[in-house]
Specification:
- With about 80 residues, the protein is mainly α.
- The chain is built from two helices and no strands.
- α1 crosses α2.
Length: about 80
């Protein structure tokens, strides 16, 4: 692995791959830990949707998505080096 290239893509291509991986990972991470008011045994506020999550934890999910997208991007870089 002496000829391993840590940047096998141009910057726009690397950003496009990371951006795509981030969005795919976001949609995979979003459902984790979601509970609606009925599942949480809380009263539904007036005018609220019954399926709306009690605490969506979006900041934690964005961080988890970013870390997962970095891992996916690292796998893509390794595969680009292995496959040429």
């Amino acid at each position: 692995m002496s000829d391993f290239n840590f940047a096998p893509f141009t910057l726009p291509m690397a950003l496009a791959i990371f951006f795509t991986a981030w969005w795919v990972c976001l949609f995979a991470v979003l459902p984790f830990g979601v509970r609606n008011h009925q599942e949480a045994r809380e009263d539904l506020p007036e005018g609220a949707d019954p399926g709306a999550p009690v605490a969506p934890l979006l900041l934690k999910k964005a961080l988890a998505t970013t870390l997962l997208a970095f891992a996916v991007y690292a796998i893509v870089v390794v595969m680009a080096n292995v496959m040429g």
